[in-house]
Structure to design on (106 residues):
C-alpha cells in the first residue's frame, strides 16, 4: 500500500491531506488504513473528553477518579505513539522531546 502525506493537529483532532490553517502540527506518512486507525483513536479521545466534560459539572465526582479522564489520557498517549511511528524526522524529534513515550520505551 502506498503511504500518503497527512497533516495532523492533535489539539483539533484533525487529519488531512490538505495543508491549511494550523493543521500541520505534525506530518505523518500513512496508508489509508493507518490514517483510519489514527482517526479512530482521535474519535475515542473525543468521546472520552465529552464524558469528562459532563463529569466536570458534578462537584462530588473527583477528577482524578474519573474513568473518562483516564481514557482520554490513554488515547492521547496512543495517538502520540502512532504519530511518532508514522511521522517525519521533525515530528519524531518533537514527540521524543515531549517525553510522553518514555514510559512505553522502558
Amino acid at each position: 500500500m502506498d503511504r500518503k502525506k497527512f497533516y495532523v493537529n492533535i489539539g483539533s483532532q484533525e487529519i488531512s491531506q490538505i495543508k491549511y490553517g494550523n493543521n500541520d502540527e505534525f506530518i505523518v506518512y500513512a496508508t489509508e488504513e493507518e490514517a483510519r486507525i489514527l482517526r479512530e483513536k482521535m474519535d475515542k479521545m473525543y468521546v472520552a473528553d465529552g464524558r469528562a466534560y459532563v463529569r466536570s459539572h458534578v462537584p462530588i465526582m473527583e477528577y482524578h477518579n474519573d474513568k473518562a479522564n483516564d481514557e482520554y489520557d490513554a488515547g492521547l498517549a496512543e495517538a502520540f505513539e502512532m504519530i511518532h511511528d508514522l511521522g517525519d524526522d521533525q515530528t519524531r524529534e518533537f514527540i521524543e522531546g515531549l517525553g510522553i513515550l518514555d514510559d512505553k520505551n522502558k
Summary: The helical segments are 32-55, 67-86, 89-98.
